[in-house]
Amino acid sequence: MSQNPPNLRPDLARSFVPDTLRREGQPTIGMVSLGCPKALVDSERILTRLRAEGYAISPDYKGADAVIVNTCGFLDSAKAESLDAIGEALRENGKVLVTGCLGADPEYITGAHPKVMAVTGPHQYEAVLDAVHKAVPPAPDPFIDLLPATGVSLTPRHYSYLKISEGCNHACKFCIIPDMRGKLVSRPAHAVMREAEKLVEAGVKELLVISQDTSAYGLDLKHATTSGRDGREHRAHITDLARDLGSLGAWVRLHYVYPYPHVRNLIPLMAEGLVLPYLDIPFQHAHPDVLKRMARPAASAKTLDEISAWRRDCPEITLRSTFIVGYPGETEAEFQTLLDWLDEAQLDRVGCFQYENVAGARSNALPDHVPDEVKQDRWDRFMAKAQAISEAKLAAKVGQTIQVIVDEVDEDGATCRTKSDAPEIDGNLFIDEGFEGLSAGDLVTVEVEEAGEYDLWGRLKH
Q1: Best exposed site among 186, 271, 394, 433 by fewest CB in 10 Å?
Q2: pTM of the model
Q3: pLDDT at 12 over 60
Q4: DSSP letters for 363-417
Q5: Residue 72 annotated as part of some ligand binding site
Q6: Is position 314 annotated in a ligand binding site?
Q7: What is the CATH number of the domain that holds 39?
Q8: Annotated binding-site residue? 416
């Protein structure tokens, strides 16, 4: 449920689009990628296939023969942003192909923008390629067109998202992702490992493991074991996969982990340093009645016990989560339970969203919808508490010596992240002195000198 960050849009973040020299007569495609990291991976796969067929990638509208808009359709606000992006691409370029989650409802798109050339749904790679071929016929030159071994990446070279499955088996009432992306479909473990190995060989320092439900990885495959090209066997289970990925020498960060009991088996791997001590878990709420109305497991007290056990076994663990306030029927007492739970849980990284209806979601029909002004008030109170917790936790890091990864260096300083910070959604550590010799992707040791509400400042330790 992340917002659509502007710097994940290649049309706005040119440094994230590969520089390709266009040869004479070479067809060129632009890409606008909206939504979550899972959609970003889809965009990368589409562009990789197009590059393999001889297309160049344009960093702007005017240099493209056509533009693909990869849409988000999770919330009505995301749908509106997707329609705006399609309209902008039509104005700036004219030839527009639409894909992604919003493409699951083509009439919604063509009703607003009848001039789009084609609409395809999420992860329909072949259909997207067919539409591109029709709009802009390929003209490959096998002696000139070269594709990087890792394919086309829309993230900086030192980190990469690694998608391990599609779809979801949950039936949360506020969510339409299973309707758009289907039931859980896991990738074979050896295929995930092969992709990860190629990324690390190409210089990737951090692998961000994503799916809709990372804990459920391999359930549909009955946790089958498959062999890679090197003969090594890999089991399709998140614990085994995390251990295998941890052997590659890169940072491994786990996102979208549901708090199933077997998640506790990941904690020793974090304590050993095989994977980062970081769990991204979408709790959504703490009151059992709200969780029941959401059709989510209602065991918040047990969750607190699990959190305590995780911290006992791995004191360095960072816990990130997202929550919904103003869900239909949420009373002031239920909201207060959430605030009290947050006080006790002391989560490190927290995001919060005000509930909004989404076309097709079962929660729309629930009684007692919360007024907008009450949602806003509860969001303000929730975020004030979360911010105070974050500020106190970061203040406790002052004086510590920690390892960070450098994301960007400019004339003002180096922007880095600690093991507790995922790109785009968490905080940063800034180095504003003695940073001149640093480059993106460097892993360096710093002493934390100052803390804010969400960010840290430090100096290099030599």
Answers
A1: 433
A2: 0.75
A3: no
A4: GGG-S-PPPHHHHHHHHHHHHHHHHHHHHHHHHTTTT-EEEEEEEEEETTEEEEE
A5: yes
A6: no
A7: 3.40.50.12160
A8: no
